[in-house]
Write a structure and sequence with these properties.
The protein is α/β, with parallel strands linked by helices. It folds into two domains: 4-111 and 255-344, no CATH class; 125-159 and 211-252 and 389-451, no CATH class. The protein contains 19 helices and nine strands. It has helices at residues 4-18, 33-42, 51-65, 91-110, 112-120, 125-143, 145-157, 187-195, 220-227, 233-254, 256-273, 279-293, 308-323, 325-334, 337-344, 347-353, 372-380, 408-411, 417-431, and strands at 26-31, 73-76, 81-86, 357-361, 364-369, 391-396, 402-406, 435-440, 446-451. Strands 6-7-8-9 form a four-stranded mixed beta sheet.
Length: 452
């Protein structure tokens, strides 16, 4: 691939800053397609080894060979940011990709959810994840692949079960309940205590142990790492490493529609205003943009699912046109996808984008479903609770049994019982006591899964 695209990067960056984007430096690197796919599957350029990533790699490979997906770039926010471009890209594609990446870089630097999570993890996540990978490789050499893989099986099975409302580094629970109110120190009690000075103090009781946990605990990775009765320190370190990386990935997941839409809006705008891009490259880039933000599959002309690029791009264009760029900058800073969709996907815009269900018969088009709230929930449902079932720690019993609960009412969806049992098996190997999960069956009756 020609390196001509590199000469465009500083000029695109300068144009982006002149239009109000604010981003950390980004390091661009062209890599082979196979490495691009590995990065996309692992989520980071270097990450802890595990068989599940191989399964994801094969899936992506099949999708690509079937023509269902192509990777132009993979970007990792941070300071500096890292962007990997496919070595197979042409000049037009890389001009678009560089502009797209700068939109992501602005979003991740200014959005409050990104700021909070990255501030707790690290702005140098690529180096941080590589350090985790080295630690795990050392553990494999010391404790053997089988034991390390068992710890990774359990930790990665729970990787979505974090609580971002709690800090990344949080203290253990208090061991004892807060003491009750002290008895009044009146004259009678002082005289009574003086009669037998060697006796027990009046009003003083032995401290009571607090229940474990003292309240429902959603952060399963943290709880297991903190309280599993027989885990070794290196096993706890694996759980905490997975948890730390999950904190990093959470804002990427929680703002996908906003973030991809913002990057798409800015690559379109920057290309439009970049008069230094060769004319043919500009036309090719615009065609590439149309493929990225189209709402339907390339050949079938039917929507497979909501395209976050298309939906986000359309919403940002509408916001800028109706409310101006300053309002868009404020929304980019303050919102996540929940607020973004609920506040800005209006009925008129949903109809314009064809997001409601329609039926065409005898030349007449009929709207089958026009409930805007239902549309919002359908788009957002996969995003609740980091995409994972609402499972929490209910209690640790006297015999050490770990009891989990599933809030099916909050969750609004059932559990895959076969998968749930497998996760419990992974977890029990590390908890080393019985583990049970209380949920409901398809008829709403109480159901308990248990692994000993």
């Amino acid at each position: 691939m020609s390196g001509e695209w590199r000469t465009l990067v500083p000029r695109i960056e300068q144009l982006a800053r002149s239009l109000g984007l604010d981003f950390h430096p980004v390091e661009f690197e062209a890599v082979p397609d196979s490495f691009m796919m590995e990065i996309a599957v692992y989520g980071l350029p270097v990450r802890m080894p595990h068989w599940s990533f191989g399964v994801r790699y094969i899936y992506q490979l099949i999708q690509r060979h079937m023509g269902h997906s192509r990777l132009f770039e993979v970007v990792f926010p941070g300071n500096p940011g890292h962007a990997y471009l496919s070595a197979g890209n042409g000049l037009a594609e890389n001009a678009l990709v560089c502009a797209h990446v700068l939109g992501h870089a602005d979003f991740s630097r200014k959005n409050l959810l990104f700021q909070r999570c990255q501030g707790q993890v690290s702005e140098r996540i690529v180096e941080h994840a590589a350090q985790h990978a080295r630690q795990i490789q050392q553990a494999i050499e010391t404790h053997g692949l089988e034991r390390v893989e068992a710890a990774l099986d359990a930790a990665l099975a729970l990787e979505q079960h974090i609580d971002v409302d709690q800090p990344l580094r949080r203290p253990a629970y208090p061991q004892y309940l807060e003491p009750g109110k002290a008895l009044a120190d009146d004259a009678f009690r002082r005289r009574f205590a003086a009669l037998e000075p060697a006796g027990p103090a009046v009003g003083v009781t032995a401290p009571q142990r607090a229940p474990l946990p003292p309240h429902p605990e959603r952060d399963l990775l943290w709880f297991v790492a903190q309280y599993a009765p027989e885990m070794e320190n290196w096993e706890r370190d694996i759980f905490l490493a997975v948890r730390e990386e999950s904190f990093y990935f959470h804002p990427v997941f929680a703002t996908q529609i906003m973030n991809e839409g913002w990057a798409s809006y800015w690559h379109a705008r920057l290309l439009r205003e970049a008069d230094f891009i060769p004319q043919q490259a500009y036309l090719d880039a615009i065609r590439c943009h149309s493929e990225v933000v189209r709402p339907v599959a390339a050949d079938a002309q039917v929507a497979l699912s909501v395209n976050p690029y298309h939906l986000g791009f359309s919403l940002w264009e509408h916001i800028v046109a109706q409310r101006g760029l300053e309002a868009a900058f404020a929304i980019r800073t303050e919102d996540d996808d929940f607020a973004f969709i609920r506040n800005h996907l209006t009925r008129d815009l949903a109809e314009e984008l064809g997001l409601f269900r329609y039926r065409a018969r005898d030349g007449k088009v009929t709207v089958l479903e026009a409930d805007l709230d239902a549309l919002h929930e359908a788009i957002l449902a996969p995003k609740y609770n980091f995409g994972a079932p609402a499972v929490w720690v209910r209690r640790v019993c006297a015999d050490g049994t770990l009891e989990l609960g599933h809030d099916h009412r909050l969750d609004g969806r059932g559990l895959d019982l076969q998968r749930s049992r497998k996760v419990l098996e992974y977890l029990q190997r590390l908890w080393r006591r019985p583990v049970r999960l209380v949920t409901v069956d398809e008829d709403g009756a109480d159901l308990e899964l248990s692994v000993s």
